[in-house]
Each structure stands twice: as C-alpha cells, then as structure tokens.
C-alpha cells in the first residue's frame, strides 16, 4: 500500500506501506501533537549505543536484538517489558559466560507497534478484511470497522512507548551509569546484565517524522522515537522514502536483507546509509530462510568486504522460515528450521572469514506455544502473539545455549531461572 503522508508531502514522493488514513485533518492533528511532544530518547543515549555497536563490529562485544513481533498497548506492554528485560538479560549472561565478552542487548520494544504487510487484505474465518497493520494503525479484531486506520492510535503508541521506557528505567536504574544496555563482569568473575536499548522498524512516517530532532549542541539530526531504527525487507528500496529518511539521521541503523537482494543493490544501499563507512553505523540483518542462507549469503559478504563497509552481520533465523497460516489457522515457525538457518549463517561467516555480530529474534518471556519444537516440556499457554510466532522463554534460552556452544565456549550455570527473577 502506498499513500502520501505528512512526510511524503514534504519530499514530493510516495511512501510505501503507509496507512490509508480516512481523515486527513485527524492525521494533521496527531502529527502536530507529536511535533510538540518531548522526544522519547536523547542524542546522548543514541551515541552510547553507536559506541557499543562499534565494539560489536570489532569483535569486542556481541549483539542480541529481540522482542515482540508486534507490541501491545498500555499496561500489557509495560508488563511484557519486564518479561523481555529479564529474558534478554538471561540470554546475555549465557553468551557472555561462554564468549568472555559483553553482550549488547537491544529490544524490539517501546515502538514496535506497526507491521508491513505483503497484501492489503487478509482472510479471517472466511471473511476478507483489511490487513492488521499493528496497533499503531488499526485493531486485530476481525471486524471491518476495527480494521479502519485510526490516526489517534499514533498518540497511544507514543504514550505506550513512554510508559515502557519508564518501566525499563525502573528496572535498570540510571542509564548514565556504565555499563548499561549490556552484560558486564562482576568482581567475582561472573556475568550480570543491566539496561536495554530500544529498536523498532521505522515504518509509519506520521509517527517517526515528527520526532526527528536536531541536537542543539552539535547540529546532528536524530530520530528520537528509538535508539536503533531499522528498515524492513519491504521498505529498503533505494529510491524510497524510508531509505531517504534514515539516511539523513545520525542514529545507528539496521536493514533487513533477504534472498532476493543483489550484490550491487546491497552495496548501493550501504553507500546510501553509510557513506562515511563508519564502523558499526550499519547493521545488516540477514533473513534468508534455512534453505537459501548457505547459497545466497557468501557472495553478499564478499561484496560488502570489497566495498570496505564495516557492518555488523546479524542473523534473523525467523522471518525467512515463517509458514503461512492454513484457512482459519495461525502462522507457525519450526524450531528445526530456525536452528538450521542460524547454523547456516555461522557456517557462512566461518567460511568467508567474517565476524558473526549477533542475532535478531522474535521472543517472549511467556510460556506460549507459537513456534513448534525445541524443549521437550510442552508450553502451558497457546498462541498469544498479535502477529507472527515468537520463541517462548525456554526456547530462547535453549537457542542462546546452542549459539554459545556453536561458538565454542564453556557454559555457565543454568540461567533459565533468571527469566522469572524479580
């Protein structure tokens, strides 16, 4: 879906994957409200994450980026923030205990409220409805009226993001204290974790553009809805408004790349988003699918090396392995395919002499049954995701342990209990 948003009116181009808002006056009011609202993060925090990602690029840290496929609103989002904070902390301490380096933790959190869709409509119980595009846009309820895009949801998204950030601050303490947003070694040699950086797909212009602010001290422009915005597979077009928006900001950036991308296209994208070739400025999140990663990724790694872009290579072993829902059913992902793609990614990195920088996952701390396979103990809960299937807490810990084993380092004490630690 394409339409003119407040942002695309400024640039004179058409933006992909934008809501078809029914009331332009209501959109303008929401946009103006966001323009007058305080930023959700700061240049200082964004620069600190940039420094952490430079350490990831150089091999002095590892990245775990994870969270909901699509976040809820309100109190449910605040409760989920605590679960994700503990889960990512547990995964980080497992990996640090075996790798011997800090693990930088970035949540899909405090803004992951919008989703791109491959089709404008979807079948729900035999009824064709406008696609659910995340709570920032419309409601998942299978009712035509609920699926109408509502620009007032932009304000609820902002308010929920602020609440989630407040909860993360309560859990972590002062973000100005080091270390923050990563695991760290205690004096006794064990590893602990504190803090979580935020990230989301920078998708809906009428939410993102109003919160691009200029740093009065240095003059740089920062997107202050999040520390780490990313481009999705459907919005990374070189001539598109999403690439143009992210190219003009000083945040570190991430970009999803799938098996369809060509070498020349990837290098042109790197040149556009990282013209100065800054270490860690650009994270490439590979989502190839378990059957294509070994075939497709090596040439891309070689092309990026020749271009001298110092990117962070990250594996997303989930999005390329999503099985479509049957009629009236749910999408699913199989543990075996997730693990297979992660293994393939690591094989390619080893074979090309490249550094695996991290993983990008959809996870929840809740004991849900959304991805099939993995731990033998059956989950207690069913499918709860607003959109795509997530790894539950036990599956996430198992994947972190498998990744640590694959990278060849010794395990610490079991960390599953850390998920529920208050």
UniProtKB/TrEMBL annotation:
Pathway participation: Metabolic intermediate biosynthesis; chorismate biosynthesis; chorismate from D-erythrose 4-phosphate and phosphoenolpyruvate: step 1/7
Positions that bind phosphoenolpyruvate: 108, 233-234, 256, 287
GO MF, one example: 3-deoxy-7-phosphoheptulonate synthase activity
Pfam families attached to this UniProt entry: DAHP_synth_2
CC cofactor note: Binds 1 divalent cation per subunit. The enzyme is active with manganese, cobalt or cadmium ions.
InterPro entries membership: Aldolase_TIM (IPR013785), DAHP_synth_2 (IPR002480)
Reactions that this protein is recorded to catalyse: D-erythrose 4-phosphate + phosphoenolpyruvate + H2O = 7-phospho-2-dehydro-3-deoxy-D-arabino-heptonate + phosphate
Cofactor: Mn(2+); Co(2+); Cd(2+)
Record's keyword annotation contains Manganese: yes
Top-level taxon: Bacteria
UniProt xrefs under SUPFAM superfamilies: Aldolase
GO biological process, any: aromatic amino acid family biosynthetic process
EC number(s) reported in the record: 2.5.1.54
The entry's keywords: Amino-acid biosynthesis, Aromatic amino acid biosynthesis, Cadmium, Cobalt, Manganese, Transferase
Region (Disordered): 1-23
The keyword Amino-acid biosynthesis is assigned to this record: yes
Residues the entry annotates as binding Mn(2+): 69, 319, 362, 388
Family statement: Belongs to the class-II DAHP synthase family.
Protein name stated in the entry: Phospho-2-dehydro-3-deoxyheptonate aldolase
Organism per entry: Amycolatopsis alba DSM 44262
């Amino acid at each position: 879906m394409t339409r003119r948003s407040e942002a695309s009116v400024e640039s004179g181009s058409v933006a992909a994957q934008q809501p078809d808002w029914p009331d332009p006056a209501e959109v303008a009011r929401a946009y103006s409200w966001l323009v007058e609202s305080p930023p959700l993060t700061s240049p200082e925090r964004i620069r600190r994450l940039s420094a952490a990602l430079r350490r990831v690029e150089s091999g002095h840290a590892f990245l775990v980026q994870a969270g909901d496929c699509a976040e809820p609103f309100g109190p449910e989002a605040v409760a989920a923030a605590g679960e994700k904070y503990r889960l990512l902390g547990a995964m980080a301490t497992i990996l640090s205990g075996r790798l011997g380096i800090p693990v930088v933790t970035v949540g899909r959190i405090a803004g992951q409220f919008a989703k791109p869709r491959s089709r404008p409509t979807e079948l729900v119980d035999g009824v064709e409805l406008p696609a659910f595009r995340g709570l920032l846009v419309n409601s998942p309820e299978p009712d035509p009226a609920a699926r109408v895009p509502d620009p007032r949801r932009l304000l609820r998204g902002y308010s929920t993001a602020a609440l989630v950030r407040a909860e993360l601050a309560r859990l972590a303490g002062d973000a100005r204290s080091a270390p923050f947003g990563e695991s760290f070694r205690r004096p006794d040699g064990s590893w602990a974790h504190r803090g979580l950086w935020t990230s989301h797909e920078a998708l809906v212009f009428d939410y993102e553009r109003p919160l691009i602010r200029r740093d009065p001290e240095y003059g740089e422009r920062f997107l202050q809805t999040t520390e780490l915005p990313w481009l999705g597979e459907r919005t990374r077009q070189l001539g598109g408004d999403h690439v143009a928006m992210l190219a003009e900001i000083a945040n570190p950036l991430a970009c999803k790349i799938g098996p369809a991308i060509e070498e020349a296209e990837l290098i042109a994208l790197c040149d556009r988003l990282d013209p100065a070739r800054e270490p860690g400025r650009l994270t490439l999140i590979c989502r190839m699918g378990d059957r294509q990663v070994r075939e497709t990724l090596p040439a891309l790694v070689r092309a990026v090396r020749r271009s001298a872009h110092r990117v962070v290579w990250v594996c997303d072993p989930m999005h390329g392995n999503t099985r479509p829902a049957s009629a009236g059913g749910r999408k699913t992902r199989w543990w075996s395919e997730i693990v297979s793609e992660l293994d393939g990614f690591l094989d390619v990195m080893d074979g090309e002499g490249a550094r695996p920088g991290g993983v990008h996952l959809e996870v929840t701390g809740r004991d849900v049954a959304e991805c099939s396979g993995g731990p033998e103990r059956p989950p207690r809960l069913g499918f709860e995701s607003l959109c795509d299937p997530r790894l539950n807490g036990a599956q996430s810990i198992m994947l972190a342990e498998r990744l640590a084993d694959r990278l060849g380092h010794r395990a610490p004490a079991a960390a599953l209990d850390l998920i529920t630690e208050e």
